[in-house]
Amino acid sequence: MAKTSDIRNGMMIEFNNGIYKITEFLHVNPGKGQAFVRTKMKNIKTGKVLENTFKLSDELLEIRVEKFKKQYLYREGNHFIFMDNETFEQLPIDIEELGDATLYLKEEMQVEMLLSEKGEIMGIDLPITVIQEITEAEPNVKGNTASGSGKKAVTETGLTISVPFFIEVGDQVKIDTRTGNYMERV
Questions:
Q1: Confidence (pLDDT) at 144
Q2: For position 82, what pLDDT does the model report?
Q3: Contact 163/151 with Cβ under 8 angstroms?
Q4: How deeply is 7 buried, as exposed, middle or buried, from its count of CB atoms within 10 A (0-12, 13-18, 19+)?
Q5: Residues with Cβ < 8 Å from 169, sequence gap 6 or more?
Q6: First-to-last CA distance in the chain?
Q7: Burial environment of residue 21 by CB neighbours within 10 A (0 to 12, 13 to 18, 19 or more)
Q8: Alpha helix locations (H) across 93-175?
Q9: Of 41, 76, 152, 174, which has the most beta carbons under 10 Å away?
Q10: What is the reported pTM?
């Protein structure tokens, strides 16, 4: 069991019948009352972000995880096929185990696979940014500027994002995999 003082970015814990990765934390010591730790956690199966506050007396069940570099090869039915970079062994993973990460995967992409102490696949760590091509977007209308709310667009993997008005079908865009937000045109 880990204490709240042990919390760090990247730490994996079991919480509310799920496994979460700590993405942000802040130790708060108010002038009055008990100190606490405010956290942002991401469920590694679903990708959903949860904010939670832990008291200093709380104990957390830390999950030990090993990371292995894998290459995403292709999709076959409901399975995504990954290859070990050293042994060239191919490993099929069910689409449900990957969650929202499937919207960022492109063939030949390098990822880190997370395995528990028992050898169970717990998910994958994507690169911080990915480059994808826009396949669907509303047409550009004269008078629209680079500033403003933007428009919806769909990438080659089916990810729907909000992009500036000047982005058109066929453009390559950089996307932040942590937030799912458009960053820039490439």
A1: 61
A2: 94
A3: yes
A4: buried
A5: 134, 135, 136, 137
A6: 45
A7: buried
A8: 95-98
A9: 41
A10: 0.73
Element spanning 9, H or E = none
Torsion (CA) 96, 100, 103, 109 in degrees, nearest 10: -80
The pLDDT assigned to 89 comes to 92
Q: Residue 173: what pLDDT?
A: 95
CATH of domain 2-62: 2.30.30.30
> Cβ(23)–Cβ(44) under 8 Å?
no
The domain made up of 129-185 has a fold known as: OB fold (Dihydrolipoamide Acetyltransferase, E2P) (2.40.50)
Positions in the chain whose pLDDT score sits under 50 = none
Residues 153, 163 contacting (CB under 8 angstroms):
yes
- CATH for 65-125 is 2.40.50.140
> Which of 25, 82, 16 lies closest to 45 in space, CA to CA?
16
**54 within 8 A of 83, measured Cβ to Cβ:** no
Taking phi first (over 0 means left), then psi (-120 to 50 degrees means alpha), and beta for anything else, what does residue 180 get? Answer: left
DSSP string covering 168-180, please? Answer: -TT-EEEEETTTT
Would you list the domain boundaries of the chain? 2-62, 65-125, 129-185
Which residue is it, tokens 């008291």? 55
Q: CB of 26 within 8 A of CB of 36?
A: no
Q: Supply 49's token pair.
A: 């972000």
